[in-house]
Design brief:
This protein has ten helices and no strands. The protein is an all-alpha fold. The protein has one domain: Up-down Bundle (Ferritin). Helix 2 (35-63) packs antiparallel against helix 5 (121-149), helix 4 packs across helix 6 and helix 4 (94-115) runs antiparallel to helix 8 (192-209).
């Protein structure tokens, strides 16, 4: 694998995770528990889709085959998506959505913090911009984790159950392969082992404050780096890509 192909795959990983998580959050639009939270989740979804749009645009240029960000978002099949498994998990109840988003926000926060130092000027600039948005996302979900975890017995039980069920997908966040190894030598990508340590410390500290228990070590799902996903992604893409696949190249 040469640097161009590795960089293209790397961009897809970043963009797809934001895109799929943004799509998931958008499903809450009009269904939030309170009006302000409905708006907040929708705004976070828009931020994530914006991140995905910018990175997919860059990915298309890196690939050099004339594909636009829309082509890459709407015309790739499931096995060509590289989003982390955590992002594609269904919303469940509100506690489940918040727990999923919190785990993802901590990951993105330290990821973009490190990627700002990338020798790739475009990725560095996009990371700096994205980090400002993710900082807000993390503050928002952290407050909700504390509110739910240290709230009523029911809210505590629901968010603890969510953390327990989601934990098996967190190992996938930090998998590294030949793409990472090649780009790490070039100073383009980051060492996910360092991100993992910061992520673990941050998550453990917040869960303790929220009177929640850190899950015991369990079997970790993996495979997103190779395009292997849970059954949920196919259903999500069927809805997300429906219009473009039904009316190719439609213009509004």
């Amino acid at each position: 694998m040469d640097k161009q192909k590795a960089l293209f795959q790397y961009c897809l990983r970043l963009a797809d995770s934001s895109l799929i998580m943004g799509q998931r959050l958008s499903e809450w639009c009009g269904h939030g528990p309170v009006l302000e939270e409905d708006i907040a989740l929708t705004n976070i979804a828009l931020d994530l889709v914006g991140q995905a749009t910018a990175i997919l645009n860059y990915a298309g240029k890196v690939e050099g085959k004339g594909h636009t960000e829309d082509d890459l978002a709407f015309l790739r099949p499931e096995r060509e998506f590289r989003n982390v498994l955590l992002a594609e998990q269904p919303n469940g109840d509100y506690a489940f959505t918040i727990a999923r988003q919190f785990l993802f926000d901590v990951y993105q926060y330290y990821y973009y913090q490190s990627l700002q130092k990338s020798k790739d000027e475009t990725l560095s600039a996009l990371s700096e911009k994205s980090l400002k948005e993710v900082t807000y996302h993390l503050r928002h979900t952290s407050q909700w984790m504390l509110r739910l975890g240290d709230g009523t017995p029911e809210s505590h039980e629901r968010v603890q159950r969510a953390i327990n069920e989601l934990w098996m997908f967190t190992g996938d966040l930090f998998d590294m392969d030949e793409v990472d190894a090649l780009l790490l030598k070039e100073g383009v990508s980051i060492d996910l082992k360092e991100v993992k340590g910061k992520w673990e410390n941050h998550v453990a500290e917040l869960l303790e404050k929220a009177t929640l228990q850190l899950p015991v070590q369990t079997f970790m799902q993996a495979g997103s780096r190779a395009g292997k996903h849970t059954e949920h992604l196919g259903f999500l893409l069927a809805e997300m890509q429906y219009l473009q696949r039904t009316y190719p190249d439609v213009k509004w």
